[in-house]
Amino acid sequence: MSEINSLKDKLQALQEKALLAFQEAADLQALQTLRVAYLGKKGELTSVLKGVGKLPPQERPVIGQHVNEVKAVLAAALDTAASALAVKEKEQRIAAERLDMTLSGRSAARGSLHPVQQGLQEMTDIFAHMGFTIAEGPEIEDEFHNFDALNIPQEHPARAMHDTFFFEASDEQQAKLLRTHTSPVQIRTMQDCVASGGTPPLAIVAPGRVYRCDYDVTHSPMFHQVEVFKVDKDVSLAHLKGVLQHFLSAYFEKNIEIRLRPHYFPFTEPSAEVDIGCVFCSGKGCRVCKGSGWVEVLGSGMIHPNVLKAVGIDSEVYSGFAFGLGVERLVMLKHGIPDLRLFFENDVRFLRRMGA
Ligand code: 2U9
Q: Is residue 265 lining ligand 1, measured as CB closer than 6 Å?
């Protein structure tokens, strides 16, 4: 066989071998290696070209053109194979990254209200259902709204420094303090009513934080109150007792017996402390009720005429009842919580047990 035909055969064989190898390349990396092996400077096509020198000069262009054709075929085949592999690799990557949307998700840990807030909301809801309007007010108060308007005179022990947190103030400034009860909310509600030309009936529930400079096993310097009041014509002690009876039975979720014991509060007259039949021993006598069968739960009374006068409501025409309760105390009684301090330590074992 002539030299030129042998070269042509070699080129033909090379092309076939290369095309087959390109088709079988597993990935783009392997294809790149083949590109170098066949078309690179030291590649197979170059080594075939070296044989061209042995040909007679007139035959060299013929082979040269042939080599160029093979080169073009291989380059085109490499490009085709490369784009096919690129598509294949992309499909493999997408398949590997596929998300199974049918898998159930990890549920996020859900927080919950603090037991005191739960209690506060339960109590407020009961009064809201009875038709009382929820009202809130500032925790930083002045002496008028916290004391004077509530018939608590200057010399009253409740105003002494040991009970009330006062803010520092110069002589000409009005003294500011942390409210010691939520009663100023009702004072402000009545003032707003009168100022806008309105008249009773007013029925308000005032929940919120209050502060007293008092700290021991049964007292915290910050605690929560719910206060309720109703002002209208002909409001009587019977209305007070009916509302208390309904509220306490609804909150404790059972029929609750109540009794009113005469007491003294400056802002109510007459005043009464309210006891319930012991929820632990049903009146038989236990440690909680100290053997008496009764537990004190709140303070109440008919609004003192001086309080109505202080806000400009005619106490000859209108009367009202009011009561106030400590939220922590009632939550403790309902859930058998033995120590007030548990509410303020935020021990998760306690919070979880309480439904957190
Ligand atoms: C107005 C007029 C009167 C609210 C009342 C009590 C009795 C009472 C205590 C219960 C436990 C406070 O948290 S505690 O220490 N409260 O005994 N509160 S009558 O009387 C009012 C309120 C507003 C305008």
A: yes
Query: Where are the chain's structural domains?
Result: 2-97, 115-353
Least Cα distance to 226 among 337, 335, 132 occurs for 132
Q: What is the DSSP letter of 180?
A: S
Q: How far is the CA of 155 from the centre of ligand 1 (A)?
A: 19
Note whether 63 and 7 are within 8 A (CB).
Answer: yes
CATH of 115-353 among 3.10.20.30, 3.90.1570.10, 3.30.930.10, 3.90.650.10: 3.30.930.10
- Which of 96-100, 169-173, 215-219 shows the lowest per-residue confidence on average (mean pLDDT)? 169-173
Q: How far apart are alpha carbons 321 and 348 in whole angstroms?
A: 40
pTM above 0.70, yes or no: yes
Collect all residues with Cβ–Cβ distance below 8 Å to 351 and sequence separation of at least 6. Answer: 114, 115
SS3 140: strand
The mean pLDDT value of the chain amounts to 92
CA of 344 to the centre of ligand 1 (A): 23
In whole angstroms, give the CA distance from residue 145 to residue 87: 78
For residue 324, which atom of ligand 1 is closest to its CA? 18
